[in-house]
Amino acid sequence: MGRYAVHRLLMAVPVLLGTTFIIYLAVYALPGDPIQALAGPNRILSPSVEQALRERFHLDDPLVVQYGLYLKGLLSGDLGTSFTGRPVSEVIAGSWPVTFQLGVTAWLFMAVLGVLLGTVAGLQRGKLADAAVLGGTTVIMGVPFFVVAYVAQIVVGVDLGWLPVSGTEAGWPLAYILPGMVLALYSLPQVARLTRTSVLDNLSADHVDTATAKGLARRAVVLRHILRNSLIPVVSLLGVSLGYLLSGTVLIEGIFNLPGLGYQIFTAIPQHDGPVVVGVGTLLVLVFLLVNLLVDLLYGILDPRIRLG
Amino acid sequence: MASSTLVSASAEPRHGLWRELLRRPAFAVSSAVALVICAMAAVPQLFAGWFGAGDPRRCALVDSGLPPAPGHPFGFDIQGCDLYSNVVYGARSSVLIALLVTAGMMLIAVVLGGLAGYFRGWADALISRVMDVFFGFPSLVGMIVILQAASTHNELTVSAVLILFGWPALARVMRGSVLAVATSEYVAAARGVGSGTSRILLRHVLPNSFGPVAVLTGLNIGGVIASESALTFLGVGLQTPAISWGVQLNTAQQYFLTAPHLLIFPSIFLTVTVFSFVLLGDALRDAFDPRLR
Amino acid sequence: MSSLESLPGYDASAPLLSVSDLHVRFGRAQVVNGVDYAVDGGRTLAVLGESGSGKSVTARAIMGLVRPPRGTVTAGSVKLRGVDLLTLPEESRRRLRATTIAMVFQDALSALNPVLSVGYQIAELFRAHRGLSRKEAHKRAVEVLDLVRIPAAARRARDYPHQFSGGMRQRVGIGLAIALNPQVIIADEPTTALDVTVQAQIIRLLREIQREHGTALVLITHDMGLVADVADRVAVMYAGRVVEQGGAAEVYAGPAHPYTEALLGAIPRPELRGRRLAVIPGAPPDLTGPDGGCRFRPRCGYGVEACEQAPPALAVGPGRLAACHEWKRVATP
């Protein structure tokens, strides 16, 4: 296990470096004036302000130096300053709890519902439950995400009035249930389908025949020999789907008015507050990479073929 | 999600494919709808004039936000322009971007994935590492970050960003497919009779490994359209005065309580379009999958 | 220790395992089309046939592994000392598995659960059938690993299937089968996936177990040399039927069915060096279509009009059966 863990950690370093480098390149080093672009078409910067910003971002230095300084800044927690004057790190500190609660709620819905539905569909292959799950997931996957969000908001929140549709005054969990469920829908179909496929694969696996031939009770066979093996690829997917969740928070927090990290991005865009978008976005990407690393390590624990292979 | 069973499909003969496709009602319906949408994108003038007011740019502020009326089945948008013709014309940018992105993604994925799978070695290590980074990446966030810093927001920049985040998934499938083909006997045989590398690649490897990538690309089109509209909706994609569903939805969100028709009609068109392309892709994939036959 | 005696139909004088007129259908194909064979304690019956003959499916049907929607047992009986397994309720049947009748699978790598340790998988048997505690069951599992000659059994009980070599894994598979001392063991091509030297060890292990416990062994194989070495009786299968059955030595010395004769004739021999290898022309039949006649007809050199009707199993000698109208011609040299 140690060897696998070290290997994954070593691999993670170039990945982190590469990603931050690409982000840096795309934002600061492409043709065009990044300062003006970040400020947007409506903000006119006076030459002195612009010069100050250029110096601050070291835009006149060679690319490698720029990137190195940018990295140094990242590591010390400096993610830039919003055009409103607040340091981006302060913006983040104030809004991450909301995103965290939303993310956990959505992830729970996705994991529990997805695995449950997929397992039922797999075990009931060809019957009504299976068809319902397959059909339902196809529909969800085919409808653009923010349309789903709006429909949910209008139908459940406004027309039926069951759950709050805006803001966080209702606190956890009430204010987060509807947005959490909608956010979960982003990846739930994939989780359910993968679980289903995995269960089906394992149902016809030889070792299930062996378990039956051993005279084990059906329940033991299903739980210990089918489900346990089926869940391994699903764990990997749950980690990967975090990426989708993070993307989705931008839309969901915006539509449902939850003041989290995604909301900051959502509102900063029309305001052309470039540093906020870039800073918070970078943070989300880094969080994703770290969680992915953790999931990889977890995978190694679950599947002995990987850690002992 | 790329499926590993797609790799084996490349060896199957294609004559049964049409029959398989036509058997499924999902294919017939979704391809019909998709064709209509493409027609709308190609010649919007044909569809826009059906109800009378065919010019999306003939606007009168006095009509701003009015609900459906005779001659204007979708009502008016905030500028007072006929919403129906705007929605029809909106198909164009979505389909155009979908085409650009699809072509671009496929090209890069085939080249890079093919190189990685055939030549292995350091090229493979490098390309695979890059692909790994993008696996499950929060693409929307990445795209937002990049587009925010771009100075122009037109079909080209949006397409470029979508291609940038889209090619790894396809390249991964291409690489797997090429790996399987490269170790096959007929490639070894071709090498054995002295065929040059480029000949082997073009005549043997490429045609036989292309199938799964094509299917996956088809599956993706719906997602590309949805992603573009999400980006535009957020404000980093196309901007006014461009006519696109994303732009329409962007403006509509502030008024959804007072003038819901602004939100509803573009949503319906967007949904139907994405949904039909997704169904189409699904039908194609199922027809290719040997396990389901 | 099994409850076989208490089950309906029990007859101590009946053969230990007796399969009668078994029919199994997979979708549209009748893969097992009237199979009869039997074996007694301490004896080895080899079921010989090529791929697609239905020999494995028969074995799985005996164990109760053939279930809708994949396949259905459409007719016949499988009796252990007279008790028909196919008519028993599932719970009773379950209790007999591994305790009275057990199976060794062909490929131990896929037959064993990759994410559970080998010791755990053997211990499961003791926990499920003997009600032992985890610790007790684990101890017994280590004993079983010892019995099948896995060195350092206590340590290796914690290892996972992929950490064993092919031969060792197959021993684990055998361990699973013998752990509860069943009266019948069905070994489905237990040595096919192994190389020759390891094959010999595995077979030796099985025979030792048989000698010590008087177990009946059903050996399913396509290896004719193995049959000659190990079997008391042989049942030759083709296209879902048993076409010849009898004492192994007698059948080999004088086959009474054209298929058996062709198989024996196709074995390469040093005295035939320099000559072309004999093959059986044609290919195995497609079992999806109905066919009232003999299935071997298209490839047989002895065909006559009567072959349009499927030949029943005819007695061609003491304890010998052959399903061929022309067996007399086949048997005369």
Properties at a glance:
heterotrimer; A: 309 residues; mainly alpha; 14 helices; 78% helix; globular; C: 333 residues; alpha/beta; four-stranded antiparallel sheet; 32% helix
Radius of gyration of chain C: 21 Å
From N to C, what is the helix and strand string of chain C? EEEHEEHEHHHHHEHEHEEHHEEH
What is the number of strand segments of chain A? 0
In what range is the share of β-strand residues of chain A? under 5%
| Unreliable stretches of chain A | none
The coarse overall form of chain C would be globular
Q: Helix-strand pattern of chain A, N to C? A: HHHHHHHHHHHHHH
- Biggest sheet character of chain A: none
Q: Runs of chain C with pLDDT <50, length 5+? A: none
Beginning-to-end CA distance, first to last residue of chain C: 50 Å
Which structural class do the helices and strands of chain C define?
A: alpha/beta
Round the mean pLDDT of chain A to the nearest integer and report it: 79
Indicate the multimeric state: heterotrimer
Give the overall average pLDDT of chain C.
87
Molecular structure report:
The complex is a heterotrimer of chains A (about 300), B (about 290) and C (about 325). By secondary structure, chain A is mainly α. Chain A has helices spanning about 1-30, 35-40, 45-55, 65-75, 90-125, 130-140, 145-160, 175-185, 190-205, 205-215, 220-255, 260-270, 275-300, 305-309. In chain A, helix 9 (about 190-205) runs antiparallel to helix 11 (about 220-255). The longest helix of chain A has about 40 residues, at about 220-255. Chain A is globular and about 80 Å long. Chain B is mostly helical. Chain B is built from 12 helices and no strands. In chain B, helix 7 packs across helix 8 (about 155-180), helix 9 (about 185-190) crosses helix 10 and helix 10 runs parallel beside helix 11. By secondary structure, chain C is α/β, with parallel strands linked by helices. Chain C has 12 helices and 12 strands. Chain C has helices spanning about 55-65, 90-95, 110, 120-130, 135-145, 155, 165-180, 195-215, 225-230, 250-255, 260-265, 325-330, and strands spanning about 15-25, 30-40, 45-50, 70-80, 85, 100-105, 185-190, 215-220, 235-240, 240-245, 315, 320. In chain C, the strands form 2 sheets. Chain C has an 8-stranded mixed beta sheet with strand order 6-7-8-3-9-10-12-11, sandwiched between helices. A 4-stranded antiparallel beta sheet of chain C has the order 2-1-4-5, with helices on one face.
